[in-house]
Design a protein that fits this description.
It holds the Pfam family Epimerase. By secondary structure, this protein is of the alpha/beta class. Helices cover 45% and strands 16% of the residues.
Length: 314
């Protein structure tokens, strides 16, 4: 097996590349990026290549050079960045995905192409959002993710491409700081607690969103890819849940572990995006079809985040 991870320098990509190399061997997992330099452990731990998924000829050459048979396609422009540059968001998230699917069709590859809670919007039930529901996002990122889910399912039914995906909630990790996402506050607050013992949050205190700790996200991703195809009724659009909490609940949880920590709230333009997303997610389809179950809650995650960040940041 030869695996390619696009977007390998990103928040999910760094963790996923490391885990895949541990599972399948360092030389069997190729980390692909475009502009962002690879973290040292990724760059030195196995093959790396620079490329652009919107350049189908260049992407095909990478597939040929490394004889890739499985792709984890994480290259994307995220929600907040997508609103400042919607044309780029469309190009990378949809034209890039189309290229990846075309190559997968021609080469018989297996694909993981994640979606996001950004597919939801006005008209979607905010509490315990069901698997099948209204999808009317208010951001270009969300629009590309809805279209991406449909495109992936089309390639499965039309061409038999084994493509799978989950709707990631906000993801929290101590290894890599995120950039350009609406849920970035849920990571930044831990960093700032350790570095400065204070944080100014860009969403309101009562803002409640679905979140997940990165170890759960990586485990769920691999579990879905390992699931027998015949067990899956859904393919590219699984609801995927870990925990839900408000920004104030997160701040209080950190305060209980960091005496003197202060968090203030100053909502900016990202508040409108957050308000369009659900509070909690019904992921029963993932549980029934491939046995998904999270391991971390807010308390357990906070203990692990702070322990690792204190060690990392000195």
């Amino acid at each position: 097996m030869m695996i390619l991870v696009t977007g390998a320098a990103g928040q999910i990509g760094t963790d996923l590349t490391t885990t895949l190399r541990e599972k399948f061997g360092n030389q069997n997992v190729v980390a692909m990026g475009r502009k962002t330099p690879m973290p040292k452990d990724i760059a030195e731990g196995g093959p790396c290549v620079m490329g652009d998924v919107t350049d189908i000829e260049g992407y095909q050459k990478i597939v040929d050079d490394y004889q890739i048979d499985t792709v984890y396609h994480l290259a994307a422009i995220l929600s907040a960045t997508g609103e400042s540059n919607p044309q780029l968001c469309y190009d990378v998230n949809l034209n890039g995905l189309y290229n990846v699917l075309e190559i997968a069709k021609d080469y018989g590859q297996r694909l993981f192409c994640p979606s996001s809670i950004a597919v939801f919007g006005p008209g979607t039930p905010l509490e315990n959002t069901p698997q099948e529901t209204v999808l009317k996002p208010t951001t270009m990122y969300g629009v590309t993710k809805v279209a991406g889910e449909l495109l992936c399912d089309y390639y499965f039914h039309k061409y038999g491409v084994d493509v799978r995906g989950i709707r990631y909630p906000g993801l929290i990790s101590w290894k890599t700081r995120p950039t350009g996402g609406t849920t970035d506050y849920a990571v930044e607050i831990y960093y700032e607690a350790v570095l400065n013992n204070r944080y100014e949050c860009f969403v309101g205190a009562d803002t409640k969103l679905p979140m997940m700790y990165m170890p759960d996200a990586i485990k769920g991703t691999l579990d879905l890819m390992d699931a027998p195809l015949e067990n899956l009724k859904h393919h590219s659009d699984f609801n995927f849940a870990g925990m839900s909490f408000s920004a104030q609940e997160l701040a209080d949880c950190i305060s209980a572990r960091m005496p003197g920590f202060e968090c203030t709230f100053k909502p900016d333009s990202r508040q409108n995006i957050a308000d369009s997303w659900p509070d909690s997610i019904d992921d029963s389809a993932a549980n029934e079809e491939w046995g998904w179950k999270p391991s971390y809650d807010l308390e357990k995650m906070s203990d692990d985040m702070l322990e690792n960040l204190k060690r990392k940041l000195g």
